[in-house]
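Hello forum,

I keep getting stuck at the same step: I have a sequence, I want structure tokens, and every attempt I make locally crashes halfway through. Rather than fight my setup again tonight, could one of you with a working pipeline run this one for me? It's a single chain of 300 residues.
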Amino acid sequence: MTENATKAEGRRQKAESPTAATGVLRRSQNAATGGNVTRRGMLRSLAGIVGGILALPVARVCKAAVQNGLASAPAPSGYDPTQHKWLMALDVDRCIGCGMCVEACQAENDVPQGFFRTWIERYVIKKPASDSGKARGATVVDSPDGGIKGFPASLIPKEEILKSFFVPKMCNLCEQSPCTQVCPVGATFDAPDGAVLVDRKYCIGCGFCIQACPYGCRFFNSVTHTADKCTLCYHRITRGLKPACVEICPSQARIFGDLKHPVADDPLQRFIANNKVEALKASLGTGPRVAYAGLDEVVR
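Reply #2:
Ran it on my machine without issues. Output:
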């Protein structure tokens, strides 16, 4: 089977079977809105979800492709993507907007200046006018230089602010990713371990995937002349390390783990069990697989 045929088969199989990460998002939302959740029950649920993934044919046919360096940074030769299912979780209430995650990502992945694989947005919700009859006023969103240097004081007077918070953004690792669907050469693809990757050897820099992403997570890399995006620091996670942004976050707002290797008292499992987990723009039907907690309705 050729590499392009392998990727095409992978997309077909992926469309027929739900992923572990999507299942966790759906189950955790139900658990958070009703009933009690125990650690044993959560482990049992995760084990059931992961069990279905292990049988996916796409995992077997894509293994060689990932090992042969189709990611922007290659995995080690002994890495088996069929034995992992990575999940990134983001806790909005914990994010302090320091920008250290953005800076670490830039340095770790040689991201060109002015572009970002991950960034932070600040949301400021103003108080409503006294005669408006509304519960809240207008929302102002900013992200100076991707938040890499933190955020200056808001220009909105404190007495006019109802609520403000920071939201980390990154590739949402969509199950039905528009970027993989529009790529004319199959350079961007969904790996069996949950990462959405770009093969720089095949990418022709047409920009179709950049335009198709509803989250604005892709950009054209003027150095490599290819599409670029978050890879979950693939060169790190395939060697047992955490993504750079997770490693450096001082407030533990970013939680990362492997759904196929659940461990008791694991931070990722606690996050899923103890929060109402949501996804960005879930109504678009792309199946985003990055889990958020603490999302306000104005976040887009």
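The chain is about 30% helix and 15% strand. If your local run keeps crashing, start a new thread with the error log.
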